[in-house]
Specification:
By secondary structure, the protein is an alpha+beta fold. The protein is built from 7 helices and 8 strands, in the order H-H-E-E-E-E-H-E-H-E-H-E-E-H-H. This is Abc transporter.
């Protein structure tokens, strides 16, 4: 689950699911979706013993386990910070002065992930974006890497609304990432990837994403 892109209780199960379903249906197929915590979803999709052929939405990364569809939409990736203690940076290396929150098993950017792996970038890993939001608000970390649409969605949930006044999006985006479906790298997975891409070419991705993200915003309680 990664609202507003995917989630069992969201309209059409989220913007990314709606795009994927439309693409599959254009090829006279049906999409079946189950929802799991992120790390488990990736593990299940990559297991040869699993009934799942892939997972979504995902950023592209170098791997032998999966092959990726064409883009199913965009994801603005940024940093959430305290309004009273904004992070100042021009180059990614400048972030090494700060401790950032990341979500375990999430792909960020190539350069940032390399700095994390080499120990140049201080990070604390948690299992959800919500945990990172709480840690930033409490001043336990300087900022956290997060999709901006995800941040806006979470800060409008009743249990997190009180934190919204303390937080803001850093003035610089890390990247405007593309989202994909990751299919298992097998003959069957590649066949489904190719079929999916054919259907995807027949749908208006921006229109579906825009309508669902706007609809989700309009259904949230006012701040």
């Amino acid at each position: 689950m990664w609202p507003p892109y995917s989630g069992q209780q969201l309209p059409q199960q989220g913007a990314s699911i709606a795009v994927a379903r439309a693409a599959i249906e254009r090829m006279d197929q049906q999409l079946a979706v189950d929802f799991y915590p992120w790390s488990r979803a990736v593990k299940l999709a990559g297991s040869a013993k699993s009934d799942y052929i892939g997972y979504l939405p995902e950023y592209y990364f170098e791997t032998d386990k999966f092959v990726f569809s064409k883009s199913i939409g965009a994801s603005p990736l940024g940093i959430v910070e305290q309004k009273s203690h904004p992070i100042s940076w021009q180059h990614l290396e400048d972030l090494n002065r700060y401790t950032l929150g990341v979500v375990k098993d999430y792909v960020n950017t190539d350069v940032l992930d390399l700095m994390i792996r080499t120990g140049a970038q201080p990070v604390e890993a948690v299992t959800s974006d919500e945990q990172n939001i709480r840690k930033v608000a409490a001043g336990r970390i300087d900022g956290a890497v997060i999709d901006i649409n995800v941040l806006h969605y979470l800060l409008k949930q009743p249990h997190l609304q009180p934190l919204a006044e303390k937080l803001q999006v850093n003035r610089q985006l890390l990247a405007n990432k593309q989202l994909y479906v990751a299919f298992r790298n097998t003959d069957e997975g590649r066949r489904w990837r190719d079929l999916f891409d054919q259907g995807l070419a027949k749908v208006d991705i921006d229109n579906i994403m825009g309508e669902l993200l706007f609809q989700e915003e309009s259904q949230l309680p006012p701040r």
